[in-house]
Amino acid sequence: MDKVIDKIAALGLPAVILTIVMATTGLSGAAAITTALAILGGPWGMLGGIAALGITGLVAKGLASMGLEELLIA
Predict the structure, then answer these.
(1) C-alpha separations of 22 from 12, 38, 45, 47, 59 in Å
(2) Hey, what long-range contacts does 27-36 have (CB within 8 A, 24 or more apart)?
(3) Of 6, 7, 42, 51, which residue is most buried, by most CB within 10 angstroms?
(4) Using CA atoms, how far apart are residues 34 and 71, in angstroms rounded to an integer?
């Protein structure tokens, strides 16, 4: 069960971040996705946005596997 939660956390957080940024663009469809990735990527554009979401997924997976309680105690 822990592995399932790790995978869900790793996919869920980047999806939530992308959805929030897409909502702030005011666009819809493919234009919203393209613009949101470009916003997240900063000067590196869409590829930087994809990389930022990938790094966010890795961080979320690490936090889910370690446990938030252990992190706060340390």
Answers:
(1) 15, 11, 15, 16, 21
(2) none
(3) 6
(4) 35
- The CA angle 38-43-46, to the nearest 5 degrees, is 30
User: CA 69 to CA 74: how far, in whole Å?
Assistant: 9
What's the CA gap between 1 and 54, in Å, rounded? 23
Per-residue pLDDT reduced to its tens digit, 45-72: 999 999 999 999 998 888 877 776 777 7
* 7, two tokens: 């995978």
Nearest C-alpha neighbor of 68 from the set 23, 9, 21, 8 = 9
Domain ranges of the chain: 2-73
